[in-house]
Amino acid sequence: MNETVMTERAERPRPWMIAAWPGMGSVASLAAGYLVRELGMQESGEFPHRSHFDIHEVGVKDGLVLPVRLPRGMFFRWSNAGEGRDLVVFLAEAQPPDGVWTYANELLDAAARLGIERIVTFASMASALHPSADPKVTGVATDQAMLKDLRTAEVTLLEDGQIGGLNGVLLGAASARGIPGLGLLGEIPFFAAQVPNPKAARVILSVFSVLSGVDVSLAELDRHSASMERMLIDAYERLRTQAEAGRGEETGGEEVAEENGTTPDAARIPNGTSPLDLATRQDIERRFEDARHDPAKAVELKRHLDRLHVFERYEDRFLDLFRKAR
């Protein structure tokens, strides 16, 4: 019986590793993170950061310096209950500012120890796509065999161009070492490159499911995509109206508080809207600052403004988060 089990395991295909880092539209992180949650993947280890990250600032709260925390990169593993392949997801919080090539090769060393057969990365590709249109998936590969797989899945190939960051560099390192790999790029509207795009993540996972033979329910991403699409269409139409009116881009500069604790926003309160107290305004300012540094928080900012019924008051500043992505 043990010999039978060993034979079955030997015949099983080797696992694939999906590696993802933050990027435009948070597409890679959204798609990889969704796989981890949807498949119920188990955390299986942490990739040592070594000397690839450094500390340039510290956080402070209530006068106390907060503990220093370096960005993490975690491995998650899913064991296929059927005869198909297992999957490993490497999900990183940040890309290192230096030593990117060395970092990529160290990650491939870790992948080799895990018995990985193929490396897969997700990324985004900005275009003039209208928010209501279906995004396409463009693919790249490290060898002709991988190109054939992409063609079989009817993926459009990237004829010329570059893929910035580790979502591309890892494939270059894999190619140099003769490791099969491919990258899937989801199309996003260029004007909203800083905003999380679940629609692009969804089409990437749809293609990945075909390539890997791993069935993944995309129902939750469908719901998020519909909600985000409505918001982006509204933003797109407002930007187009501004452009047609010849208004151009607004300054979006920092606002200075007056001595009485109000801000210039207070002069633009829509009729019928109650003024916000100082604590609420300060909380909104903090959320805007968070969204400027972490695009994934823009969605929650929009929801928070809607809950307070003050989005109209802040809509120009919110749209400025999109305009700065050009």
Overview of this structure, please?
It is a single chain. This protein is an alpha/beta fold. The chain contains 10 helices and 10 strands. It has helices at 2-11, 27-38, 100-113, 144-152, 166-176, 198-212, 219-244, 278-293, 298-307, 311-323, and strands spanning 16-20, 42-46, 60-61, 64-65, 73-78, 87-92, 118-127, 137-141, 156-157, 181-189.
What are the salient characteristics of this protein?
single chain; 326 residues; alpha/beta
In short:
The protein has 326 residues and is of the alpha/beta class. The chain has helices at residues 2-11, 27-38, 100-113, 144-152, 166-176, 198-212, 219-244, 278-293, 298-307, 311-323, and strands spanning 16-20, 42-46, 60-61, 64-65, 73-78, 87-92, 118-127, 137-141, 156-157, 181-189.
List the helices and strands and how they pair.
Layout lengths: L1 H10 L4 E5 L6 H12 L3 E5 L13 E2 L2 E2 L7 E6 L8 E6 L7 H14 L4 E10 L9 E5 L2 H9 L3 E2 L8 H11 L4 E9 L8 H15 L6 H26 L33 H16 L4 H10 L3 H13 L3
Parallel strand pairs: 1-6, 1-7, 7-10, 8-9
Antiparallel strand pairs: 2-5, 3-4, 5-6, 8-10
Helix pairs in contact: 2-6, 3-5, 6-7, 8-9, 9-10
